[in-house]
Amino acid sequence: MTVRLQPAGNATVVRLHHSGWGDGGQWDQAHDYFDKAWAAVLENLQKRFVEGPRDWTAFRARMKAYQEEEDRRKRG
């Protein structure tokens, strides 16, 4: 994957080139997935620079509690 950043006045143009694809089967499925996913990733990247960093503290706490509950459930 290649990411290029180009100054454009008060903004930055981001160009992403995702290479290394094979042909057929799961390659096609993976390509279709990333063809859609990269737009969301780049939108979130822009949002981060416009709004600032996100505080992940509450999310991490929920994930830790979830994992602890799963571990307890597996132990019986």
Essential attributes:
76 residues; alpha+beta; 2 helices; 2 strands; 61% helix
The average pLDDT is 94
Structural class: alpha+beta
Biggest sheet, open or closed, and with what strands and sense?
2 strands, antiparallel
User: Could you name the ranges where pLDDT drops below 50 across 5 or more consecutive residues?
Assistant: none
How many E-type strands? 2
Helical percentage = 55-70%
For the record, the count of structural domains works out to 1
Spatial arrangement of strands, main beta sheet: 1-2
Strand share of the residues? 15-25%
Order of helices and strands: EEHH
Oligomeric state as shown: single chain
Tell me the overall shape.
flat
User: What is the radius of gyration computed over CA atoms, rounded to a whole number of angstroms?
Assistant: 19 Å
Number of helices: 2
Explain what you see:
By secondary structure, the chain is an alpha+beta fold. It has helices at residues 25-51, 57-75; strands at residues 2-8, 11-17. The chain has one domain (2-75). It has a two-stranded antiparallel sheet. It starts with a strand and ends with a helix. The model has no long low-confidence stretch (mean pLDDT 94).
